[in-house]
Each structure stands twice: as structure tokens, then as C-alpha cells.
């Protein structure tokens, strides 16, 4: 099976409606967002084996845990132990998610150098997720960022429910932009918009991402998409068209928030990589190896995962994906 790292063909000679990048950056979130909603607990040793497999498959950014209360998210109870077992790898960044000051302290104790500090733009979701009003959570953001910067961390600020919330309804884009501006003013190195409840559509993605990229003034803008309404990959396409180059994905399409009814998984890493390869956009990912991880988790969890490509990749004698078409 072929890797998606270096496409053999490109769209040379074909007129494009938009200018797409030569490559994108992917952060694999399967062992954080992916498993956090699963009842079958993954042992730490299995998680570490999966991380090794994902690194071997070409993933260079992996969010491996969140430092949250284990009673709220039992899958993350071993976050410190997991971080202690990570194998350093050249060019590979392991990150974690924190939601409050205590989580930041635990992340610092664990020794990770990449930390995502996240708030929800929905007051209802913030109360369900971290037991804090949106106003209170925002007031405590500066403390978390200051602590991380003093420790020399690379920090990513993120806004959850940036495209709407199923608990609350519409989230005003101006509120999201104000939260982004606030995080940038605190000195975060990167910004992320998270479609936590899967309500984004291409028009909203292009409008909000375009404005956030302008506000970020060259700092990386990440997009975290869920496929709740089946629009995950079309939202990727919309984001690419307005210059987004950094995306979260999850092997097999695992994922979902424990505090949002009906929340479904992230866009599948394999599906994402294959689509981009077909467009002539490199990801550096060996799809077959990631697909093997997804099938391994299907067996362990005793369920089918939502992604598509890991099913097609079961046989070695089939063409895994269509090549980009040559010009006539």
C-alpha cells in the first residue's frame, strides 16, 4: 500500500478554482479526544504501543492526554503515567489539553512542553464541561497562560463550541473573535477553533476561519472538526480554501465529548489523509499503518469505528485510494 506522504501525481495542467497548499500539518487526537467518551478503559501500555505505531506511521503531532479529573473522564486517569512512558522522537511533538489551573500544574509536573489551554464559547457547555461559567473561565485564562509561559511551554489557545452548541444553540462569531483576540493578547503561540458539537458548515468555516487567520497575523490557526452531521471533510475543504493548514484528526473517526449528548467523532485521520493525497496535498502519513491502529481499536473496543478508509484497507491486494487525475 502506498503512503500519503509524497503523491506520485499532482494536478499539473489542471485549472484550480482555489490555491491549495503543498502540505498540511495534522495533530492526531485519537488517544485524547478519541477515547475520552469510551467506557472500555485502555491500559496505559496499550496507549503507549499505539503512540509508537502512530509515530511510525508518520504522525509528528500527537495530543496524548488531558489533565482533567479522573472521575469526570476516567480514560485520562493515567495521564501522568502515560506521559512518563513516552519515547522521545526527533521531530515529534506530544501535547496535552488543560482546562484549569490545576490541570496546568499537572501538565508541568508531567514534563510535556506543548500544552493546549482551552475554553468554551458556550456558557452552557462551559458549565457542563468544567463546572465554570464562561465569564469565570475567561477570567482564569490569564493565570493559566502566564504559568505556562513562565515555564517556557509552547501554548495553543483554543475556543470550543466555536461554531455553535447543542446545549445552548447559536454562538455569536463576534464572541469567538473576542475570545481569540484575548488569547492572542495573552501571548499564546497558536490558536484553535473547535467545532465541539459538530455544527459547523462550509460557509461558517470560511467566514470565521478567515477572520481568525487575519487576527492571528501569521500564527498557526488550527481547526478541530467533528463529523456529527456528515460535513467533516467538506468543512476541511472549505477551510483549506481560506488558508487553514493545521487540522486535528482522530484515527478511525473516534471521538466525542462526554458532556454533550449525541456528540460524535472527529474526522478520521485515514479519510482525511486519503482525500488530501488525491488532491495532491502531502500529509506525511502512511495510511495503511494508521488503518491498522483503527482496526486494532475496533477489536479492543468491540465496536465498529465511524471512519471509512480503515475498512477498505483490510486487504493488501486492493488499491487503497484513487490517484490524482493527470491532465488530458
List the main descriptive attributes of the protein structure presented here.
single chain, 328 residues, alpha/beta, TIM Barrel, eight-stranded parallel barrel, 12 helices, 8 strands, 13% strand, globular
Question: Explain this structure to me?
Answer:
With 328 residues, this protein is of the alpha/beta class. It has one domain (25-267): TIM Barrel. The chain has helices at 30-34, 44-56, 79-84, 101-110, 123-130, 134-150, 173-186, 202-216, 232-241, 269-278, 287-301, 309-312, and strands spanning 25-28, 61-67, 93-98, 114-120, 154-160, 190-194, 221-224, 246-249. Strands 1-2-3-4-5-6-7-8 form an eight-stranded parallel barrel, surrounded by six helices. Strand 7, helix 9 (232-241) and strand 8 (246-249) form a beta-alpha-beta unit. The longest helix is centred in the middle third of the chain and has 17 residues, at 134-150.
Set out the fold topology.
Layout: E1 25-28, H1 30-34, H2 44-56, E2 61-67, H3 79-84, E3 93-98, H4 101-110, E4 114-120, H5 123-130, H6 134-150, E5 154-160, H7 173-186, E6 190-194, H8 202-216, E7 221-224, H9 232-241, E8 246-249, H10 269-278, H11 287-301, H12 309-312
Parallel strand pairs: 1-2, 1-8, 2-3, 3-4, 4-5, 5-6, 6-7, 7-8
Q: Can you write the helix and strand succession as a string?
A: EHHEHEHEHHEHEHEHEHHH
CATH topology: TIM Barrel
Structural class by sheet pairing and helices: alpha/beta
Number of helices: 12
- Biggest sheet, in brief? 8 strands, parallel, barrel
How helical, in percent, are the residues?
Answer: 25-40%
Low-pLDDT regions: 6-16
Number of strands: 8
What value does the average pLDDT take? Answer: 90
Principal-axes shape call: globular
Residues in β-strands, percent: 5-15%
CATH architecture: Alpha-Beta Barrel
> From the alpha-carbon coordinates, what is the Rg to the nearest angstrom?
19 Å
Domain tally: 1
Q: What is the CATH homologous superfamily assignment?
A: Aldolase class I
**Name of the CATH first level:** Alpha Beta
Termini gap: 26 Å
Arrangement of strands in the largest sheet: 1-2-3-4-5-6-7-8
Amino acid at each position: 500500500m502506498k503512503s500519503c506522504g509524497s503523491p506520485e501525481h499532482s494536478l499539473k495542467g489542471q485549472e484550480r478554482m482555489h490555491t491549495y497548499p503543498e502540505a498540511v500539518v495534522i495533530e492526531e487526537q485519537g488517544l485524547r479526544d478519541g477515547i475520552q467518551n469510551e467506557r472500555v478503559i485502555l491500559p496505559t501500555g496499550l496507549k503507549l504501543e499505539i503512540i509508537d505505531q502512530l509515530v511510525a506511521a508518520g504522525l509528528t503531532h500527537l495530543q496524548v492526554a488531558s489533565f482533567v479529573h479522573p472521575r469526570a473522564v476516567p480514560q485520562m486517569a493515567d495521564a501522568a503515567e502515560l506521559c512518563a512512558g513516552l519515547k522521545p522522537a526527533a521531530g515529534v511533538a506530544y501535547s496535552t489539553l488543560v482546562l484549569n489551573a490545576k490541570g496546568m500544574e499537572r501538565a508541568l509536573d508531567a514534563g510535556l512542553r506543548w500544552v493546549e489551554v482551552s475554553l468554551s464559547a458556550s456558557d452552557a457547555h462551559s458549565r457542563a464541561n468544567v463546572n465554570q461559567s464562561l465569564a469565570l473561565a475567561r477570567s482564569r485564562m490569564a493565570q493559566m497562560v502566564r504559568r505556562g509561559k513562565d515555564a517556557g511551554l509552547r501554548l495553543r489557545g483554543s475556543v470550543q463550541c466555536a461554531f455553535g452548541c447543542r446545549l445552548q444553540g447559536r454562538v455569536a462569531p463576534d464572541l469567538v473573535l473576542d475570545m481569540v483576540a484575548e488569547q492572542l493578547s495573552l501571548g499564546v503561540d497558536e490558536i484553535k477553533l473547535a467545532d465541539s458539537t459538530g455544527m459547523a458548515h462550509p460557509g461558517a468555516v470560511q467566514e470565521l476561519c478567515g477572520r481568525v487567520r487575519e487576527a492571528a497575523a501569521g500564527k498557526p490557526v488550527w481547526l478541530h472538526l467533528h463529523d456529527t452531521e456528515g460535513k467533516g471533510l467538506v468543512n476541511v475543504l472549505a477551510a483549506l480554501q481560506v488558508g487553514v493548514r493545521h487540522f486535528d484528526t482522530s484515527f478511525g473517526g473516534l471521538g466525542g465529548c462526554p458532556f454533550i449528548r449525541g456528540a460524535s467523532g472527529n474526522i478520521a485521520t485515514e479519510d482525511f489523509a486519503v482525500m488530501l493525497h488525491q488532491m495532491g496535498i502531502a500529509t506525511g502519513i502512511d495510511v495503511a499503518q494508521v488503518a491498522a491502529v483503527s482496526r486494532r481499536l475496533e477489536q479492543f473496543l468491540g465496536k465498529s469505528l465511524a471512519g471509512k478508509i480503515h475498512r477498505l484497507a483490510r486487504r493488501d491486494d486492493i488499491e487503497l485510494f484513487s490517484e490524482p487525475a493527470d491532465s488530458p
